[in-house]
């Protein structure tokens, strides 16, 4: 079986996912995992599919044929295997504060300094109640390598949060 990682984007409309799923199924593919969302009027995401080796080319051609409805790029995925990071611990990092440039940069830099890897991240901007400004909210799930002290990570993130004027919550996942 071939694993493909599809990146998809197109105008948000009813039937978007159905169109993609139909193309995958029609060529013997199996939809395994995905993250999809409407962002700024576009529907975008990542989908992992498996397809019999002999049908992978057909599926890629069919996905190319969806141009005009959506843009789909098929990337070759790694074979599924037990990842060494399964033994790593996880931290959940949630933050909220007044929106301004640099929040994601500074938080991700703090994580990278400790060798942490972001497993998932969701962010959004929304109106602040009663203040008339905009809030930035982020929710991250990060992998902590063996040998890294979560307390050191927490101290660094709390320092960054203080500099950014954002509220931070960190917990084990």
Automatic annotation (TrEMBL):
Gene3D superfamilies: 3.30.70.260
Pfam short name (any one): ACT_6
Organism, as annotated: Agromyces bauzanensis
Taxonomic superkingdom: Bacteria
Family matches, as InterPro entries: ACT-like_dom_sf, ACT_dom, GcvR, UPF0237/GcvR_regulator
Gene Ontology terms describing biological process: regulation of DNA-templated transcription
PANTHER family: UPF0237 PROTEIN MJ1558
Identification of the protein by name: ACT domain-containing protein
Domain spans labelled ACT: 92-171
